């Protein structure tokens, strides 16, 4: 009997890579710790520029800007990462397909890592603390976790999560800002570069980069059962930047965000949404549309289903246009063979 995997292929690869890279990092750290434990900077053993990102040394190892996201420094964060990838990755890969999920992963991995390195480099240059540039390390899946939460807000904003089987429940749409807020507090009251500031920077840059990608760049079909064209970005009002924040803050943030967006449009960095885009996005939200609801198929399967629906509509139009409606076979009696079972 063939083994049937319930975890999609890219998610499986991410899980295996996270565990193996984290174990490798732990092994290297232990050996370096034996070398540096009697030095003046015993914490330097954690800065491994070919596994994690080190501002002063990782330019020689460019692959770490993608792979450092999969490297965890302790068992606690490793468990969080594995749980995030297993549940979140499985959901998103089934919703979008492996190709689109892979693009999203690249955005929420590379962009936050580069942003964090640039901010650290600027900080070290302004403070003149060049020693920290070689002892600070950047790794972990905080940016991915923030990005997954942003994606869930787009896909299932009204779903609720129960906290440890208690009466306390949280709506999915509140999770992104709650998470980045939790990452902000330790960075303010206990600012240490690699242990509190790095998660803070990764979380916020992951939040911003994932929202920007989903809001303006990712392509989706608002309804596979109609002839509606694919949309680039999500123009719905509920997915606006201000929509992530509590009501008292939403108004001022929306005013600032609008000014920034208008500036970017005037600089031709961004393209404004048309009224049709906004209406399509809002209609998708109101109807609980199919932008990312997994139904056991991939993005390619959703596209194939959309084409079949369009073919049925074209056939119906031809039959009605022939003037022989009395002999027309109703659509409910037409069966389209897609070469296999369809669930």
From TrEMBL:
Organism: Ascobolus immersus RN42
GO terms of biological process kind: retrograde vesicle-mediated transport, Golgi to endoplasmic reticulum
PANTHER family: PLACENTAL PROTEIN 6, TRANSMEMBRANE PROTEIN 115
Start-end of Gly residues biased regions: 289-299
Membrane topology, as annotated: Multi-pass membrane protein
Cellular compartments per GO CC: Golgi apparatus; membrane
UniProt region (Disordered), positions on chain: 281-306, 319-343
Segments passing through the bilayer: 12-33, 104-126, 132-152, 172-190, 196-214
Entry-linked Pfam families: DUF1751
Localization of this protein: Membrane
Alphabetical keyword list: Membrane, Transmembrane, Transmembrane helix
Protein name per the record: DUF1751-domain-containing protein
Entries under InterPro entries matching the protein: Rhomboid-like_sf (IPR035952), TMEM115/Pdh1/Rbl19 (IPR013861)
